[in-house]
């Protein structure tokens, strides 16, 4: 039992160090004048993975903690939990600040061909989606109502708009697809499967 407890604590030590490094990296990025949103998004994904691992280890180690050391254990767990919550909140807030006011997209006419030359393309105010599952539904609802269900746009035009409003891991998911009507449907399916799965959204909600 002591050997198992020791191994778990060593593993937790490594995970805690990783969490601290990620939080420090987020802090450093947030001090920059030109914040790299893609980098922040990647750090948040890494932090989420390490956070889940840390919770699992904390739960296992608690079984071996004696009553006289329980208070110290609880304080240490709370310290790291607060650190994760703080930097996750600050990074997410910065991402939203940088992406909430996206300029209207001007898609080159050479990229698509509409059935009528008089079609007026919608002026968009859709925040870019960088791959954070908790923001998927908000992004998709906005995109769906403004673009996806707009019958005046071709599938290729919709695909252009979609790519222009993605970044980070979300854009990487469909970046290699050519602009064709068939690929537009495939791209949407892939994005929904990766970022809109109910189990992912539930876990994200519970971890917030």
From TrEMBL:
This is Uncharacterized protein. Keywords: Coiled coil. Pfam families: DUF1759. Residues 30-67 form a coiled coil. It comes from Araneus ventricosus (Orbweaver spider).
């Amino acid at each position: 039992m002591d050997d198992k407890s020791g191994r778990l604590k060593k593993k937790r030590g490594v995970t805690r160090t990783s969490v601290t490094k990620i939080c420090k990296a987020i802090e450093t990025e947030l001090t920059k004048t030109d914040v790299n949103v893609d980098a922040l998004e990647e750090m948040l994904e890494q932090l989420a993975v390490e956070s889940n691992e840390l919770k699992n280890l904390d739960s296992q180690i608690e079984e071996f903690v004696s009553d006289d050391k329980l208070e110290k254990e609880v304080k240490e767990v709370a310290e790291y939990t607060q650190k994760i919550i703080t930097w996750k909140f600050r990074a997410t807030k910065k991402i939203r600040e940088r992406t909430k006011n996206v300029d209207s997209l001007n898609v080159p006419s050479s990229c698509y061909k509409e059935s009528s030359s008089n079609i007026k393309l919608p002026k968009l105010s859709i925040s870019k989606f960088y791959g954070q599952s908790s923001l998927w539904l908000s992004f998709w609802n906005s995109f769906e109502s403004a673009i996806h269900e707009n019958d005046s746009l071709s599938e290729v035009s919709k695909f252009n708009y979609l790519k222009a409003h993605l970044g980070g891991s979300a854009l990487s998911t469909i970046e290699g697809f050519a602009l064709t009507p068939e690929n537009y449907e495939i791209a949407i399916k892939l994005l929904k499967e990766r970022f809109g799965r109910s189990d992912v959204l539930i876990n994200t909600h519970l971890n917030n």
